[in-house]
Amino acid sequence: MNWLDEVKWDANGLVPAIAQEVGSNDVLMFAFMNREALAKTAELGEAVYFSRSRRRLWHKGEESGHIQKVHELRLDCDNDVVLLKVEQLGHAAGEPGIACHTGRHSCFFQRYEDGAWKTVDPVLKDPERIYK
User: Fold this and answer.
1) pLDDT, tens digit, for every residue of 46-70?
2) CA–CA gap between residue 14 and residue 32 (Å, rounded)
3) How far is C-alpha 92 from the chain's CA centre?
4) Backbone angles phi, psi at 65, to 5 degrees
């Protein structure tokens, strides 16, 4: 059996994918992968997702340079969620990498506090300077 056949793809041929930073274990982002994206990720050793809005493969960092080098691919116990253990590249050495299109380290920068969502992580680089 092909390893890709073991993944439980949804009705649209997609599987949720979580990118987690190696070392810090920060959850950087959530996206989807189709069969081709997961195969390409394994082949390249860099994260490739399926963009539902663009309806095409999206090599993370193709525009921003913020590539995710994949150290491990894991599948959850139900075979329906992929976890990528990644090194977030493309930012100054010694500083946290930028995974979010908002210029932040992680897409999960809002925390629920006292009945509202509060932004708790800083913008590391203005998105206007990332996407030209």
Assistant:
1) 999 999 999 999 999 998 889 999 9
2) 6
3) 19
4) 85, 0
Tokens of 76: 């959850």
State how far Cα 36 lies from the chain centre. Answer: 16
Among candidate residues 8, 24, 5, 28, the one with its CA nearest the CA of residue 16: 8
And the tokens for 66?
Answer: 């913020």
Domains and CATH numbers, the chain: 3-95 (3.10.20.810)
| Beta carbons within 8 Å of 104's beta carbon, 6+ residues apart | 98, 121, 122, 123, 124
pTM above 0.85, yes or no: yes
Q: How far is Cα 26 from Cα 23, in angstroms, rounded to an integer?
A: 8
d(CA 105, CA 88): 9
Can you tell me the mean pLDDT for 8-32?
Answer: 97
Amino acid at the residue 91: H
Report d(CA 10, CA 16) in Å as an integer: 9
